[in-house]
Structures are given as C-alpha cells and as structure tokens.
Fold each of these.
Amino acid sequence: MKIVILDGYTANPGDLSWKELEDLGTLTVYDRTSPEETIARAKDAEIVLTNKVIINREVIAQLPRLKYIGVLATGYNVVDIEAAQERGIIVTNVPAYSTESVAQMVFAHLLNVTNRTDHYATQNRQRRWTENEDFCYWDFQHMELAGKTFGIIGLGNIGRRVAEIALAFGMKVKALTSKSADTLPTGIEKADLETLLTTSDVISLHCPLTDATHHLINHKTLQLMRPSTILINTGRGPLVDDQAVASALTSGQLAAFCADVLTKEPPQADNPLLGLPNAFITPHIAWATEEARSRLLRVVISNVQAFLNGTPKNVISSEV
C-alpha cells in the first residue's frame, strides 16, 4: 500500500515520528506540495494524507489508484467530499485533537491584551524599571476579567472549553449556539447575535465557516460592539472582514483584535491588520503544541489502520 503525505512539515517538522505509518505501507513524506506538484506526487498512491493541499474534483479524477484521503486536521474543506464519494474514496479527519491547545491560545491572547506582560518584559530588558522614579509604572489601563461578560459564538468542543475557563476566571458567559438553553452547562446563558455583540466585553469566535458565517464580523456587526470590546478569532480567518476590523480598530470602535487565523495564510504584506498596535496576530499556531500534534498523529495513524482493517472511522460524508 503506497502512502503519500503531501504537506507533513507543519504537523511534524521533525520532532515527532512517522514510523507507525511506515509500518503500514510504503510511505513518502513531502514537507510541502504546490498545486502544480499534487497530481504527480499522488498519482500512484492508494492513501493520500493532506493538511492544506487541495484535493478537488480535478485532482481526484487524475488519481486512479486513490482509495483513501486522510485530512491532517479537523476542518476538511480542502477535499471535495462529493467527488470523493462518487469514486468510493473514504475521507477522514481528526476531530477534537486541539481543543485544549486552542482554548489555551484564546486566553493567552486575552491576557496579553489585559495585562501586557510581554510589553513590560520587553521594556524592563531595556532597564526601564531600574530608571523609574516609583516602585511601579504602567502604560496601559489594565482590565480585571472577573465580572466581565465573555461572549462565545459557536459552542462546539473548543467553545465549551473556552466557556469553562472563562467561568473559572469569574466571568459571565453568553453563547450563540443552536443548542437549546436547557441543555447548556451551568453558567452559560444562551443569547442571540445582537444581544451577544452589544453586551459582551470579550467576544471569541468558534463557529464553523459556512456561507452564513462568512464575514459574520463586518462593518455592521462591529458597530453593535462596545468600543471597549476585545474580539478574538481562533476559528477561521474568513469569519471576519479584515478591512472592517482594521477600520474599527483605527477609529476606536473596537479596542483590540486578537487572531490566530487570517483570511489568507500566509497573509499578504498589505494586510491592514498587520501594522496596527491594537491588533495581535499569531501565525496559526494555536493547534501546534507538541501535545496536540502528538494526538493528531496518533489519530491519523489509527484512522489509516482502521481503513486498512475494513472498519474506517472518523469518516466524512457530503451529507455532514
């Protein structure tokens, strides 16, 4: 069985092992694969694993031996599921492997904004504190989280974990979710979008990217937020309109924007968010702790083993 990994570097830049996959077949691992290289590299493979390399209908049509596509992530929009099903190709993903890591990143961003620890550490490496007239100094108005309202859009695995942590900080939690109010965990109040946007001090995005949620955060919805609001996106880049958020940050309509994802990745040099002092952007690394990547690889290997045993799991269908 020939197994090809098209873009293995981000999941495993060398600190983890592919050995268990090597034991399941003839394995070829490419760090990165361009669209022009995809078909040539995958043409003889029965099993193809991809993280961000697109496997669309055109590609599938030119891979006659392909039987299985494994996505090295939870999101599977890189694969044309319908085209795969038509060919009888199994497609799997890796659900819920990064829940703890992404939730941790949400609060790393939030605490960076409210406490600016990196700013002060940088200042004090330059001896600013040693030259200060008083025993302390501060350059920003700091914010205590207890008692503030944390709004969560999307209450899946990550959204629920974020809610638990927010509650542990003593925050009030409101959620926009399809779940009924009587099924929500204690402490989480169900809210409609307008209520959540107008009453939250912090808003965190955890909903899937669909036609309905594309640019959910736009000029209109930003106007509903308080000027003191902190907006966090660790979900999908296109949930927000980058230009609208940049304008809101510049005008003072939004206090801070924290994002681990952007509409285009890597971003273009002229992305308006990159140069703003109240935009805090990390390079899509919330999922990338060693622990989360280790879980990812374990599930990927288990998915392949299950497929080879004739009992595939974590299978995606076009009806999902």
Amino acid sequence: MINNDWAEILEAEFQKDYYKKLDQFIQKEYQEKVIFPIKEEIFNAFKLCSFSNAKVIILGQDPYHNINQAHGLAFSVLKGNKVPPSLKNIYKELFSDLGIVAPDHGELTKWAEEGILLLNTILTVEQHKPLAHRKKGWEIFTDSIIGHLNKDNRPKVFVLWGNNAIAKKPLITNNNHLILTSSHPSPFSARYTFFGSKVFSKINKFLRETNQDEISFEIK
C-alpha cells in the first residue's frame, strides 16, 4: 500500500492494460523464481519519498540481483552488505564535493526521506540475472512516472548518470526543472565526467535558488 500522494497516480497506472499484463508476468515470476526486491519493497521509492516531497530524481537501471541487497531504492543496498562499486564512487564524489564522509553501509533510506526519489527504470529482477525483467513493461511505467514529475511545476533536479538514464532526457521538457548529466558512477565510466561533476553542490545550489530546503546528504 502507498499511503501518500503517489497513491492516486499509481492507481491510475495500475488500471492500464500494459500494467495488468506486467503484473501477471511479475506474479508468475515471484511464484516460480527468486525475484528481488521482496514484493513488499517493489515500490519503496514511492513509499519513502512522496510526490510532493520529491525534489531530486536520481535514475538507476534495475535492482541488485544478489540475495538481501535490493530494497526498492536505486543504488541503495540493505545494511549488512558490502557497499557496491558504483555507490562507493558516489560516496567518493560526495566527499570531494561537500566533504561528507561516507557511512560504513550502502543504505540510502535517509536520502529518500530527504526528498530524493531513487527510481530504477526497471523495478524487479531475477536472482543473478541482471536486466531479466527488461522490456516487460516496467519502462512504460517509469516513463509515465517521469512524465508526471515533469508536468508538475515545482522545480526539481533530474540526475541522469550514464547513457541509459540520459536516454530519458527527452521526457523532461518543463523548463522549471534542472537536468544534470554525467557518465555513470560505475568503475568503468566514473573517470570520464562523473568524478569532479560536483553534482551534490549543484543540486543544493538549485534548491536554494528556487527557495527550497537543501538536501542533507549526510548518512549515519
């Protein structure tokens, strides 16, 4: 259950034919295979960051595919896991940019509660099979979510790291919003334009300029 202002938006999406087909596929997958995250956490990004509180949208691709990692937030892993390589690089840039020391875990729940929608473009995955649920309908769903956020005139920051996220740029047409792009923070590409991008200070500069509270990026 989504107990905030996303409920009406998502309920309308759930009634569409493509989503009903997606839901049938997903239910069958959960019955027959090991799928992440657990069902109750598929929509965690929306539960933890309401529509009206979403000031920053960070797009990921699909959930982590090993046991007990994914919990419905892009780039975030449950406490008790090693910090994944891309998130390690995000923490490195956070320290370089704002001097914030990385926590000893990779759970980004606090960021979500601060107003960052940590949205994967695909919301489920089969164990050990990255992108197993690609082109099953999730992309239509999350494109629609991006569309709703775009239409809302409250200024937001869309953070697009890497080519898959940057491909969503045409969906963001409202001049009230800021789009920040760079290479992906993965070890394969962070050195191109992610490191030194100062993405976190740019986010807060925009929020200050649009009379919004800054994000506290510090995680305990």
Amino acid sequence: MHGRGIATVNLKELSQLLGLSQTTISRALNGYPEVSEDTRQRVLQAAKETGYRPNRAAQRLATGKAGSIGLIMPISPDHSSDMHFAEFQSGLAEAAIARDFHFVIMPAKASQEEEAIRWLVASGSVDGYYLAYVREKDPRIAMAQSLSLPFIVHGRSYGLDADYPYLDVDTEGAFYDATRFLMQLGHKRIALLNGPAELDFAFRRKLGAEKALAEAALTLNPDHVRHTFMGDEQGYHGMKQILAHRERPTAVLCASTVLALGAVRAMNEAGLKLGRDMSLIAHDDELPLLKPENFSTPLTTTRSSLRAAGRRVGERLIAMIGGASPALPMQELWKVELVVRASTGPVPPGT
C-alpha cells in the first residue's frame, strides 16, 4: 500500500486494496457505529495514504446520507460583521473537516427561519442541522422535534422543558459570580451592557447579575442597562449614555469583549481610569483578534471558548447522524471561569 504513494484512487480501487465492500468503506468514513474501530482506523489510514476522497454521489448511494450538516445564516445589517458567529462557525468547520462532512448554508431573515429550516430538511441536502440565537420559548425547537432529522441547539430556551439536545454555557452562573466579585470589592451601582434582550443568553446573563444583587438587597438600575447587538459602536454609545447619568455606576458588566472595546473607549473619552475610577468585567469568547490581556488595561473576564463550543456541536451532531449510542450526553452545560486582571479594583472612595 505504501508503494502507491499519494496517487489518488477511487472507491472501487480502495475496496479491492482493503478487501472490504464499498458500503463498509463509506460507512467507516462516516462514523457509523456498526463498523468496528479497528476497521475504521484501517480505512482512514488507507484513505490518507492513497489520497482517496469520497465521491459525494456514490457515497450518498452507499450510505443513504448526504454527508452534510445544515445551518441557517441569519441575515440582517447587524449580523453582517458578527465575529461571534464567525468564531463559532470556525469550530464547527474543524469538526466537519475532520469527519469529511460538508456545510449547507442557507441565508434567511429572522422572520423566515422556520420556513428555511423546513425547506432544508425537505430538500434532502443535509443529514442534520443546528439551531442558534435561541430565544425565550423558542418555537423553532418544537418544530425541529416534529421533523425527521437530527438537530442540536447551541444554547437553551428559557421557559421550555429541556427535552432536546443542546450545548450551552452557564452564563447565568458566570454573571452571578462576576457580580458577586464586584460586590466584594465594594461596588453597589453596577451597569450592564448586554446582548439583544430577546436572546436567551442575554436574558440569563442579566438574571445572574440580578440574583447576586438581590442577595444584598440591591437591584440593577434600568438606566444603567443596555440591550444591543454586541458590537464596538454599540458598546461605545451605550457606555457614553450610561456615563451621562447623574448617578454614575462604579462598575460595568459587558456581555462580550467587543462591547467592552467600545465601553473602554467611552471611559477614556470621559477621562476615567479603568480599574481605578471604573471597574469592568467582560465575557470572553476567546476571539483571536480581541484578547482581553491585550487591552491597555487587561480585562477581568468570564471565559468560555466559542470555537470549542462550535467544534463540540459539530462532533455531537455528526455522531447523532451516524447513529451514535444513546450513552452520548443529550445535554451539556459548560461552567465558566472567572479570570481576574487589572480592569477590576475597589470601589473609588466617596462613591
């Protein structure tokens, strides 16, 4: 076999080379559970050494699968430059490439998402799909449960029974811990620059902050809360408005480092020293172009990798498509780490 170098072979030749049926080879490459691990590794090694790439049409005939996972790409002026979406997709792509799966991406406006998902499923062009940008009591989940294809949710939907497959980050717990940490430093007036109010993760982050404050008989001042798309400009304008209030907060929670980038710009314009005059904690999705330690004052963060989440969603979805054992966890809730840096300090004297 090594003598063939990297010359490309077709499925029939690979079948003859290994003494396995073409169907067995296709099923091994697609992770079907009835193929033994020894056989799967043997096929993967041979495919690598011979340069074999599956013919999609032949593979579909052999396995009855499209070899693709589907995703709806939300289209709106806000989402056109959403680096959070891009980072998650990078992780999903890593999982797909490792298992030789393709993407079928369908753009859709938010109001047309359910229709787009139904079309994607009916088209036969995908073997499974994932749902993102989850909302409270999200109707897409019940719809997905009524359809025939495997699906997984990135996030959860507040107000629904958790009887669907998901991967989520405990952002409620993260913002509870972050708020408690600020309160231990003496802060009582805490602002919140959050994601869109209708999205589940933003609701849970606010809930975590409110729970921590309530334990000390404190509340979030509505004048100090903003719900926006998580962009630099939104962080800048939101923080500028909050600082204009007569009773300024002494600390701010940001739902992303992108929002924090704008918030810090507004603080600098106001002549405030981050970590001394104003404390800030941001949620860090580990975006490669916006590392919290590279800010002029390194940011204290709640940290969880969006790329790792995308990779795990891809792995789980492809395993479900391949008929993975029921022992695979239906739901995962990732804990979040609080990383303390220089952007947080004691409440300024006299405030």
